[in-house]
Design a protein that fits this description.
Mean pLDDT: 86
Strand content: 5-15%
Radius of gyration: 27 Å
Order of helices and strands: HHHHHHHEHHHHEEEHEHEHHHH
CATH class of the largest domain: Alpha Beta
Distance between the termini: 39 Å
Length: 482
């Protein structure tokens, strides 16, 4: 007899997710625990309060079913069950732990083992399994799970979609403060390190790249000394030193290109395993040099007087991050990604998008309202945002869709009629409810990892943001049920 939890070909899993016919490699849940676990008294396994409610929510077949369409049931080796990994992700985001610490804590706790469906005798996965699963799910998989949670909230009438509020925030990238000099230094250090790895594999078949770290360090120290003077001449001297770093980077890249060309010539004579290792290093090297060339170019644009560079690279490790100006007094410029967050009643996040750069908020409202209609079957009765979303197109769109209250403050000078409109009781009440969205954004930043992402790259950051919002919604749902 097949082990419970492992579906046969073309069968429906215990959670209601249908896998296509074929050899099923991916399981949805681990419903059969080991023998030693069955000997433990039930009271030791009873999950307390919030964790018990979350356990029931994540048992819902509708929450797990979307993952069957995202993950391949026939490719790859058998891995952890979907339900187990989803619960691990919940604990990780709920308590903001690293992958390694999470696995250690789950291994040490009866309750957390029970919650994640691991028996007392089972070996927990390696922390890198969570990284692999985040890559497998990606942004699309995490969005599917969030859509399923919102659908269940609507089905249970916890959220009806009658109200809609929207706000934007910045998720900071996990990088140090970017300057042209530091970016040039980082780029030279990376290409030198990777080129020397290739030399270590191929030895005498390619030349050894020179180490320019001491020359770079001298220039960085010179920049620090000039900046301490705080005079008008310091800026010009700093730009001159930065230009010398740019020329040094160009010399280093020319040397590395010769290494790449030599590597390609000898790659055909290498063993397949060695050729694969070298190919990975060459790809990483070319990608870094492409970004470093852009850094050199933008450094020279700044030296020439052009300081407005909207597509400016601020990190070689995270080239998708961008400088974003939100008008905050304490932090004029932030470096990362812009996130649009839409909420319904009860503070549940029903929609989110992660965007590169700093697109205007005004363009995000109509697409979000259309997604709200598809999700809830109609447009909300109340739409409220801050003045950043105000435009004639947005107001007319809401009025044509028979939105009862459109509480979007007008930008700029307002007429007496508009002032009277914004002083109506319904408008002020909706704006008072909108202010609660600030608290939701603050909570997502403080407790669910949206202040500063741990990941690099827009797609991975979007998956991390989605997991944080998933955890926020599930926990809020569990607290509403207690």
């Amino acid at each position: 007899m097949a082990k419970e939890g492992i579906p046969k070909q073309g069968r429906v899993t215990p959670q209601g997710a249908v896998f296509p016919a074929g050899v099923v490699m991916q399981t949805m849940d681990n419903l059969q625990l080991d023998f030693r676990t069955s000997l433990i008294p039930e009271e030791m396994w009873t999950l307390p309060g919030e964790l018990g409610e979350v356990d029931q929510i994540l048992d819902d077949p509708a929450v797990l079913a979307p993952l069957a369409s995202v993950l391949s049931p026939t490719k790859g080796r058998p891995s952890l069950a979907v339900a187990q990994m989803l619960r691990l992700f919940y604990l990780k985001e709920r308590y903001q732990m690293s992958d390694r610490v999470l696995i250690e804590e789950v291994a040490d706790s009866f309750h957390w083992r029970r919650f994640c469906r691991f028996g007392v005798g089972e070996t927990l996965p390696h922390p890198t399994s969570l990284t692999v699963w985040r890559h497998r799910l990606g942004e699309r998989g995490v969005q599917a799970v969030n859509e399923a949670v919102v659908a269940r909230l609507r089905q249970e009438k916890v959220v009806r979609g009658k109200k809609f509020r929207m706000d934007s925030t910045v998720v900071e990238a996990n990088i140090h403060y970017p300057t042209d000099a530091n970016l040039l230094s980082d780029g030279m250090r990376v290409i030198t390190r990777v080129a020397r790895k290739i030399h270590g594999i191929l030895r005498d078949k390619v030349e050894r790249v020179g180490d320019r770290s001491r020359a770079v360090q001298r220039r960085l120290l010179a920049i620090t000394k000039h900046l301490q003077r705080r005079t008008g001449e310091a800026y010009g001297e700093v730009r001159a030193i930065t230009e010398s770093l740019a020329r040094l980077a160009e010399t280093g890249m020319a040397e590395v290109r010769r290494v790449v060309e030599a590597t390609r010539k000898v790659a055909v004579t290498l063993a397949p395993s060695t050729a694969s290792r070298v190919q990975r290093q060459v790809i990483a090297l070319e990608r870094t040099m492409e970004h470093l060339e852009r850094v050199v170019e933008q450094s020279r644009q700044v030296t020439a007087g052009d300081r407005h560079l909207p597509e400016r690279i601020v990190s070689l490790a995270d080239p998708d991050a961008r400088p974003i100006v939100k008008g905050k007094l304490g932090q004029k410029v932030q470096f990362g990604y812009k996130v649009q967050i839409a909420e319904a009643e009860g503070g549940f996040v029903t929609d989110y998008t992660v965007e590169k750069g700093n697109p205007p908020d005004v363009a995000a409202l109509v697409p979000a309202l259309n997604r709200h209609r598809r999700r809830f079957g109609g447009y909300p009765l109340v739409v409220t945002t801050d003045r950043g979303y105000d435009s004639r197109v947005n107001r007319e769109f809401c009025e044509e869709r028979l939105v009862r209250t459109v509480a979007i403050p007008k930008r700029g000078k307002i007429t007496a009629a508009r002032r009277a409109e914004e002083q109506r009781a319904a408008f002020r009440q909706a704006q008072g409810w909108r202010a609660g969205g600030e608290a939701t954004v603050s909570r997502l930043k403080r407790k669910y990892g949206l202040r500063r992402s741990r990941y690099w790259g827009r797609d991975r950051v979007a998956a991390g943001v989605g997991l944080g919002i998933f955890t926020h919604n599930v926990r809020r749902w569990a607290l509403a049920r207690t």
